[in-house]
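It is worth pausing here to work through a concrete case rather than discussing structure prediction in the abstract. The textbook approach is simple: state the sequence, then state the predicted structure, then interpret. We follow exactly that order.
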Amino acid sequence: MVPALQVLIAPDCYGDSLTAVEAAQAIATGWQRGRPDDRLTLAPQSDGGPGFVEVLASRLGGRQSAEVSGPLTDDVTAHWVLDEASGTAYVECAQACGLALLGGPPTRQTAVEAHSRGVGQLIDAALGAGATRIVVGLGGSACTDGGRGMIDALGGLPTAVARLGTVELIAATDVEHPLLGPRGAAAVFGPQKGADPATVDELEGRLTGWAADLEAATGRDVRAEAGAGAAGGLGAALLALGGRRESGAAVIAEHTGLANDVAGADLIITGEGRFDDQSLHGKVVSALASGARDTPVLVLAGQITLDEAALHGAGIAAAHSISDYAGSVQLAIDDAARQLTGLAEQTSSRWADDRSRE
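Step two, the predicted structure:
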């Protein structure tokens, strides 16, 4: 019989099906059913995309809200976090211009019209609250405006430069794409936001002109900088304003004390919607695996496309798929929380059996 374990449950979000907080709760419920004596620590994670603020609020508190412009014409209620002790504000672009706020599937029209004004309004709120350090989580945006809307909301380029001149500005993203070119914001992410080939060309042209404006106003050429293409080019605007890029997963890890949680764990359980090759390059799962040392890492994911060799090469002890457990991808999406709970319960029993035979 395997003795009681200290289990760290640290998943990312599962696409639009489950937030990281919801996923952590579902895994904990299922695991506790199978192994009621284990001690669980819930530490939901994020790479800077959707769920960034929710994860931080779950560990730090300080949740704030503001009415801001959504990605199109309607206003939305967006949340952000203020850590008064450090003077740090955490803003998530997906709260203001996320794909989920479009009200339906993205189209060519939304790809052209979506903007980032609401992100600028969130930064304005953070400045108004006295923040001296602003961390902007990038990912999941509906727009490809290069952050023009954000800067317009801050008063335009000269005013934005002046207002943020004394603020420590951080673009939190695990996307390394540049602003322009075949690996840039329009070419890589535009199709995900409804852009057809002609629209991709239109967006690329718009970003090219905007990059020149950013350089003229700030003296910084951000076109080829890693992360400039994040969130439809929002990364470029933040970098031009004097910001620096940091890994979103690393930001969450640092500010939620993940290293201490990892050090005290006998087993780490993580997961995300789709566990594929990208997961092994700077995402939450790879960050946990690389920091786990001799602690086994178990992945519970919506879908898995990696083979056993890739898993073990990345330091993953085992990986199990919700879609396999549910019997279909659609059920795994439509009933994600219950299916993940069931998979966690089933896996906990198998884990104990496997360890007992070792």
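Step three, interpretation. The mean pLDDT is 91. The chain is about 45% helix and 15% strand.
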